[in-house]
Amino acid sequence: MFEHLVIFKFNAAITPEREQELIGKLLAFKGQIPGLVEVTAGLNVTEETDNKHGYSLGLRVTFESREALRAYGPHPLHQDFVKGLAGVLENVVVVDYPIQ
């Protein structure tokens, strides 16, 4: 299995409603994308404010294999989500690793 972690940093154009809409789209991936085992997403509520660096939304997706993770990128639902970030995304950090 593989873990896919993403944290999003948005610009000033993002609204709380838009963030909630994006979370809803991410959570809707479950059961719709082959090889996706689990997905969680939510707003960053850390109390470690010195370490937040403006990143406000986190995503964790577990895939059954590296091949499933690779197939996720071009999947139409994922591509629709990516297109929806236009105009609001400032930066993103991605970490993928095998689950031991």
UniProtKB/TrEMBL annotation:
Domain Stress-response A/B barrel intervals: 2-97
Taxonomic superkingdom: Bacteria
One protein family per Pfam: Dabb
Annotated InterPro entries: Dabb, Dimeric_a/b-barrel, HS1/DABB1-like
SMART domains reported for this sequence: Dabb
Assembly description: Homodimer.
Alphabetical list of PANTHER family matching this protein: PTHR33178, STRESS-RESPONSE A_B BARREL DOMAIN-CONTAINING PROTEIN
Protein name as annotated: Dabb family protein
Source organism per UniProt: Paenibacillus glycinis
